[in-house]
Design brief:
Elements (H helix, E strand, L loop, with lengths): L12 E3 L13 H18 L3 H4 L3 H53 L3 H6 L11 E10 L4 E3 L5 H8 E10 L4 E4 L2 H18 L5 E5 L5 H4 L19 E6 L10 E6 L11 E4 L6 E5 L2 E6 L5 H15 L12 E2 H7 L15 E7 L2 E6 L7 E4 L6 H15 L5 E7 L15 E5 L4 H25 L13 E7 L1 H7 L3 H15 L1 E7 L8 H4 L4 E4 L5 H8 L10 H4 L2 E5 L7 E7 L2 H10 L20 H8 L7 E8 L4 E7 L6 E5 L6 H11 L4 E3 L3 H14 L3 E4 L2 H6 L3 H16 L1 H4 L2 E6 L5 H8 L3 E3 L5 H6 L15 E4 L2 E5 L26 E5 L3 H11 L4 E5 L9 H4 L5 E6 L1 H6 L1 H10 L2 E4 L3 H6 L16 E5 L6 E4 L2
Helix pairs in contact: 1-3, 6-8, 10-17, 11-13, 20-22, 22-24
Length: 942
Amino acid sequence: MSAPAVRRSDAPIALPARPERPPRGAFPLVASVIPVVASVAIWAVTGSLIALCFAALGPLMALATLIDGARGGRRRGREQARAHAEARARAREQIVRRQDAERATRWRESPDVAALLGDVRRQWRSSADELVVGRGTVPSGVQVSGGDEEADDLRRTASELQDAPVTVPAGVGVAVLGDAVTAGAVARALVLQLCLARPASDLAVTRAPESDRAWATRLPHWTPGEGLGGAADARVRVALVAPDEPLPDADVIIAVVAREAEAPPACGALLELDGLGPARLTWGAHVSEVRPEGVSLAQAAAVAERLARRHGTSGDAERPRGPVALGDLLRRCGEENEGEPASLGALGAVIGVEEAGPVPLDLVSDGPHAVVVGMTGSGKSELLITWVASLAATLSPERVQFLLADFKGGTAFAPLAELPHVAGVITDLDAGGARRAVESLRAELRAREAALGEVGARDVSDPRARLPRLVIVVDEFAAMLQEHPDLHAVFTDIAARGRALGMHLVLGTQRAGGVLRDALVANCPLRIALRVAEPAESRGLLGTDDAATLPGGADGRGMAWIRRAGDARPRLTRIALSAPADVAQAAARFAGRPSRPGPWLPPLPTRLSRERAIELVGEPPQDAILLGVADDPARQRQTPVLLRPGRDRGLVVVGGGGSGRSTVAGAVVAARPDAVVVPRDPEAAWDALELIERVRPELVVIDDVDAVLSALPAEYAQAAGERIEAVVREAGETGTTVVLTAARLTGGALRFAELLSRRALLALPGRAEHAAVGGEASSFDPHRPPGRAVLDGLEVQFLLGDSARAAPAATDARASERWQPAAAVTGMVLRAPRRRGEQLAAAWPRDVRVLPIDAVPPGTTLAALTRSGERLVLVGDGDLWQRHYALLQEVRSSAPFVLGADCAAELRTLLGERELPPYARTRASRAWLVRDGLPPERVLLP
């Protein structure tokens, strides 16, 4: 016997231990003495003899306590015994349940002849490394723990598995010892067990006695010893040897031995029969009792005939063997001629051969839709490719188009991409791609209905329609529906209306049950089944179990049962294999032939240049800027995304980091270099906003408007926001078009965006952020490439240019020049005035004299400080100027003042300026110049 397969993943079953006897309660001495003492004390105090009567309560209470304790102990004992019995029953039930599961697993892994005949799914799907010699007791893999000596019976029950398959390695050989009839039946069963477990491509029966030749020669495995191909033949050789026959050279020997004879040494296992009762199996050190299985000659003949039919042979008829080349098949059918055979029909194609010859299929007369079912490795993808290649070889693109969908990696239909008939190849879709598929297919339905309605035709067979038939081929349809269930409704709609509209479905899937709904299957009368795992799957599709009986391996690959609506029974077909030359020949034959645009436009490119955009949608109008291309699958078109400066109010572009929002702004600036750009630099941004407020240009671009506002101090950010809001609000009246980009819409940026009707949503970090800026949750895509956005409800790919740069007109040229005094007297307010004054004096010409205020005596007038031929600069901080208030008033009334950017408070307190000065960075040699009653202007100090 082989070692048992112990399921170590199951936790051991805990066996209950015998409950301990409840301990007897102690005598309540204290409880009985205290009432006596209390009664005596009361009698001593009161002198009442009645009090002495209470002394008897103590012993009575003690006795009652002992009686209650005994009763409670017996009750607990009964409860513990009952719980122990229930625990034993539960443990036994667990052992039985696990052993039942283990027994079923062992029989599933090691089936005998009866089990293999009862379930065709298990035939020819086993390596047959073991032989089931009978039923018996084997060590069980059920584990138990705990318990005591009373649980020994449970341990014994758990350790032995009854009525389990007793197996030996097939290669050791089995000698069956007993009377000729019984031993022959048992040996016959062992040989048939191997033939049922392994296909003829893996196992060969090379020897059988004369009495068994009638059924053995009908086996598809029968190959006499001299017919084997030597070392090149990898099949396992099995020999059934009669008594007193010499042993052949075989891998597995099943020998029948007379009772008085000795077992051959080549057989490592000996099965001794005792009539029809239990037998004894000896293998190595293992000796066990088994109940063997026997097969009569009549039963063996029936099994052999059944296997022959399954293998495809019955009598002298041969099923198609070996691969069939599609090119050879087309030549046999005369398909190399200019016209296709009329008998093939409107969508006729030859896809394989059967006993009677080539097998033609016509999707129009046999369909209009087809289901192709087959498990992995059965040849389903090859069948679909052959079908498409055969149709393309005879029908022009004006008559048929293909939409191919592959949901198992995207490579199955790669060889067909060069065909001019192929309108599109769909691979694994994301959420956005699924929506695009739904919209495109529904648009195709509407377009075909409209085309038929225009000419008054009822269906595409009317010559006036001039519509090619569209064949939609899907490989792994179940995988597509699992990821995108919304597509089922579209395909059901096509299945219902496709016949008249010329739309045909060919749906490939590993299994149809639970995947294809009744409404869809009912409209697919053409059924093709390759090898399937379940007989129920075959019955549901074909009405018979035939597809479940197809062999595995190379023999079964490409074998299919085909049933049309009018067929009484399915027909066995060997599917032809297409070659690259077949596809190339069809592509060359119809190269350059015009065809109707398909329903599936190519997806938008992930990077879009202006030249590529013009190829897709044409040149934009002279007064418009081409921003990108929009995908409109609902109308089966791709349209330009335009911005018309001076006519459109503007556009808001929102996107996270790396989404391409700055390059979108750069593309606008590249198209219109005269646009006024508000850059991110706070000083330049302030100057640009001042310029926009004054001149109101035709096109304004503000890149990262939220970042621009956040870079300014609060009072400047508020003023800048008010300016931007005014420009956006008055855009329609002033003819200004505003383009804003932002990472998020909060605060002022949200107010601006609400004033503009068009909003493009690029990639955002999450669904919540996408919804917060006004996007629909269903349109969120976390994998959008840079420049891909949702605009006006459509997917848009923007042109990707350089980041937006400020136009020269938006800057003040004077701000880059180093300021120096020009008037005879200039006042300056600076922090650390003495040190900073020395630095300025060293940088200015010699005729500029820098004089600190704290060096001027109190009461000195301005006239006393000035000298002819020099420019005087009085420098001090706010406090020093306050101390020389008279001099301050004199300088302020007649001379300009310069205040450092870190002296904003002094601008109000010393000079009385209430207007917000231009923004200037502190500690960067920035200052404000106030002169001639004009607003402050920003200057750059040395």
